[in-house]
Design goal:
The chain is an alpha+beta fold. The chain contains 4 helices and 7 strands.
Length: 151
């Protein structure tokens, strides 16, 4: 059974930042950046075992037609359980509800698991950003999903 997904709250930030720093040790978001994203209502969390085990954020301004997956991460202990997929599906539904017709994201070129998740949901590679992830000098693969009617 997949962990329940709900809107992120500011009181989730300690747990989220723990996951963020463990998942992205060299280029984690700052607490201030994460707080702004949660305060804007763009973040969601997944819960299991009595706590937050994953989070994600999507920037989907109403009327823009475009959305961006900003971040997504799941605790190492809960990877492979469908939590990332549930978070992604929730973000896509949110983007669609806000009128997005296209969803973009960047994914590390050295993260084949995430690339597979996105491709399995219909995202296609549309570009490459050399040395995007610093300080690691890792390329970003730019992906796009065209949302169909009634997603």
């Amino acid at each position: 059974m997949t962990a329940p997904v709900r809107a992120g709250r500011l009181d989730d930030l300690d747990a989220v930042m723990g996951i963020e720093r463990a998942s992205f040790p060299t280029d984690a978001w700052s607490l201030d950046a994460m707080r702004e994203t949660f305060a804007a209502g763009d973040a969601i969390v997944a819960e299991a075992d009595g706590g937050v085990v994953g989070y994600a954020a999507v920037l989907a301004p109403r009327g823009s037609g475009d959305a961006d997956v900003l971040t997504i991460a799941v605790t190492a202990e809960h990877r492979g359980e469908g939590i990332g997929a549930a978070l992604l599906e929730h973000m896509l539904a949110t983007a669609s509800d806000r009128g997005a017709r296209r969803v973009f994201l960047e994914v590390r070129a050295d993260n084949p698991v995430a690339q597979h998740l996105y491709a399995s949901r219909g995202f296609e590679v549309v570009g490459l950003r050399p040395r995007y992830y610093q300080p690691d000098d890792v390329d970003a693969i730019v992906m796009r999903l065209d949302l169909g009617e009634g997603r």
